[in-house]
Amino acid sequence: MKRNFASTVFVFAIFIIWQCIAMKMNAAYILPSPVQILQKLWEVRVPLFTVHLPYTMSVTFIGLAISIVLGLFLAVIMDMSENVERMLYPVVIASQTIPTTALAPLFVLWFGYSIWSKVLVTILMTFFPITITVFDGFQSTKREMEELMQSFNASRSDIFLKLKIPNAMPYFFSAIKMAIPMSIIGAAIGEWLGAQEGLGYYSKRMMTQLDGAGVFAPIVLLSAVAMVIVGIISVIERAAVPWRKEL
How far apart are CA 234 and CA 239, in angstroms? Predict the structure, then answer.
């Protein structure tokens, strides 16, 4: 409780300031107050929690799972070969220079309003931090430790499995915690640009009706879900990587 006291006070202060500004403006279609957003969440809880949230989460988890597999594969092969690294690293960087909002409409044209157009947007936004962060974890392995294992006739696979993977585990969990919010944002962007359900679609629909609280309600819900998932990953990390604080 002592550790979280300062952050709790800070969050409450932001909400109080937000509430005062919204009440002063008295224009809910532009800036709804936190109370109005919570009221809206309660009013539309049934469609949000039974239809739109499950759809957005399915997009998020499918895209994140594919990104993890793709990111780990690219990180491993780049660590294994410098030639592969020189070939792929610029391509991975270049993939992030293309605006997502420019590609998302193309994905909709190619795949229609199916789930895969949104999944591709999510993958495009999330595989990069996983690839780069895990690759940096492999590369951060101390050369002295590799030489020590080689002196004991350790094979290249032994060094990778027993030294590089444990060393990269904290980096992997950091990458996952970065990728989770980005995957949710990617899913929402894909739904915003072309979908028939999902929290991004619902927010866009409320905007056309000038319902400010309706626009913010799914955003607040997505933020809460992202924080819960990151918290779960943090708990798993503390159990799986107990040596992280020693790094």
Answer: 9
Extents of the domains making up the chain: 1-28, 32-246
Tokens of 198: 């999902």
Q: Does 32-246 carry CATH code 1.10.3720.10?
A: yes
Q: How many CB atoms lie within 10 A of CB 180?
A: 22
190 with 104: CB under 8 angstroms?
Answer: yes
Residue 143: alpha-carbon gap to chain centroid: 32
247 residues of the chain, pLDDT tens digit each: 666 777 788 888 888 998 888 888 887 778 888 888 899 999 988 988 988 999 999 999 999 999 999 999 999 999 888 888 888 888 888 877 877 777 777 777 787 777 888 888 899 889 888 999 999 998 888 888 888 888 888 888 888 888 888 888 999 999 999 999 989 988 888 888 777 888 888 888 888 888 888 889 998 999 999 999 999 998 998 888 887 665 4
Task: Tell which residue, 98, 80, 56, has the closest CA to residue 64.
Answer: 56
Q: Which amino acid is at 170?
A: P
Backbone dihedral angles phi then psi of residue 142, each to the nearest 5 degrees? -65, 130
Which pTM does this prediction carry? 0.85
